[in-house]
Design goal:
about 10% strand; alpha+beta
Length: about 120
């Protein structure tokens, strides 16, 4: 079962499957470095800070503890679910979807090589 939501960002309309909300949050956090969020209360923007407070309040974990709690497999799946809305082509120079898919590919490679490290 999927829960498709919009990735809030200053660029193109991007969607992500939030059926695994923790993995979706981790994926958007990794791709956007706090500059992207998830609509409908999925993840706020942290442009002006506040990530540590949010993850402490929501998960009783630091950001790094939260990211470590999401398996590489789940993170890769969430990253792969990021897509341009309605099959559109990117209109900006920044391509978060391509970045997400590249990150997922690297994670999958690390999993298959047995070197499951997080960068």
């Amino acid at each position: 079962m999927s829960d498709i939501r919009e990735v809030t960002n200053p660029h193109d309309k991007i969607i992500i499957d939030c059926a695994d909300m923790d993995a979706a949050r981790a994926a958007v956090l990794c791709v956007g470095l706090g500059r992207y969020g998830i609509s409908n209360g999925g993840l706020p923007l942290f442009i002006l800070g506040g990530a540590e407070e949010y993850f402490q309040k929501t998960y009783q974990k630091s950001v790094s503890q939260f990211l470590s709690s999401v398996s590489q497999e789940r993170l890769a799946t969430a990253l792969e679910s990021m897509q341009m809305a309605d099959g559109r082509e990117p209109t900006s120079l920044i391509e978060p979807v391509a970045l997400a898919h590249g990150m997922a590919s690297q994670i999958r490679k690390e999993i298959s090589n047995g070197t499951q490290t997080r960068s």
